[in-house]
Amino acid sequence: MFTELLNNVNIDIGRGTAQAIGAIVLCLAVVGLCRRFGVHVEREGAISIARGLAQMVFVGIVLAALLHGSLLVGAVILLAMTFAAAVTASRRARGVRGSLLLSFYAIAAGAGVVIAGMLTTGTLTTDVSVLVPVGSMIIANAMNACAQSVERFRADVTAHVGYIETGLALGAVPSVAAAPYFQSAVYASLLPRLDMMKSLGLVWIPGVMAGMVVSGANPIYASIYQFVIVAMIFAASGITGLVATLLMRTRAFSTAAQLTIRPGIEKRNAPLKP
Amino acid sequence: MAYVTGLPDVGWRRPLQQRRQLTTSVGLARRQVTCKIEAFMDNKTVSALAPVPTGIETEHLSRTVFDKALVSDISVQLRPGEILAVVGPSGAGKSSFLRLLNRLDEPTGGTVRLNGQDYRELPAQELRRRVGMVMQSAFLFPGTVATNVAFGPQQRGERLTSEQMAALLERVGLPGYRERDVSHLSGGEAQRVSLARTLANAPVALLLDEPTSALDEASSRAIEELLLDIVRERQTVCAIVTHNTTQAHRIADRAMIIEKGRVISVGPAKEVLDAYKEV
Q1: B15 and B97 part of one domain
Q2: Residues B136 and B11 in one domain
Q3: Which of A7, A40, A86, B33 could join B3 via S-S bond, C-beta 3.0 to 4.6 A?
């Protein structure tokens, strides 16, 4: 298997390296241009380019090695990706207890339900080479949806503490007192995906279709399959946004219906001066 | 507690309708007995009697957040039909104290008793219906005056009748404001709607957190008078947080001075406030 792999690598390596060098040169040129205008991204740019290249080469090698691996291998890889996505998304919910688990549950729920549905209906094959790239797209979008809903909910709640506590003081349960902010958070997580579906084909032709067409697939089937993927991304984002916001809402209130996320809580909690 | 002996138990497992009837009858019975006891005490025939456990009573109430004592060991009694002014400098813990009374914040020590009952025994929603709060800003929900006033009862699946709504708005001096959009109200009007919205829950206690601080002198005075009338007429327990000692003088029966979360003095308003002014 590895001989075959190395042969493939040898055939494409020259072309791939040349293309990568071209891309890096263009990126460095942009970094240089930014520098002229006083925008300094040299260090970050270099790190990002190096990391991106190394990570993609690593993924390529893993995919090549596991090209026809079992569903279990694919599932383990997707689970690891979900965890990595949860770590990234949880940074948006700093200060909220259990934010990593919250993000993990939300992303796993959204991506899990959709990927399982696609596997059941045969839209997705269990081949690692198909499952992992498509699954990663869904997980990445679920991650964005999670981060967006969590961030929006927290921002809205902290900006409307007075209204929420007024609702509570009038005898409302937390779900009623925070209803407008719950709705706007879920909507915020869906908005980019709604726009994505609306602009599909008009503004952009996403990667899956482009890749399929490049590799010789029927363009009509490729476009329909692309729509399916985007629709699944929307579904996964919706589930993730809902679960993330529901969990955020649960964590935002104590069992005695007290709002626990408040602005300036650090200030309020600052130790007394002697 | 003797005055409530023999009253029916308002268990939370009872059906809602039955519970409401019971609550009403318990409330009425308590009020009647309370009034009798007060009338009795007014005649000064029982001045040696122990304090009647009615209204709201705080017991060593404290709240400490990350080693900062916001409220420290406050034990005070708030009686029906009486206004207690909570006075003190900014950051003294006045609002923090008030927020503990309807459990918007959790005490880290001590407790609050509502007519002798530990308030943790009540569901938070029911406690907050009984102990109403008016905040510094009106925080009216978008929509009409009517949607705001109906909000509290709606949370319990109740609807205010047209007459009840009209009576409430009349009471706060806003007759005919029912269908007004809240975005068109002045500061004073908004605060009156906020008061009507709280009163719609028929609370036994009113907590007010600097309710007139954003209003001009005339609107402030009008709200003060309205408050005095309502407290006397409904015999509600009332605590008002204010940094304005003149206002406290005008409306309070008793005053409590707080500094750094601790009670400096508490007693008849005039005595306490005069002593505070001198300091």
Answers
A1: no
A2: no
A3: B33
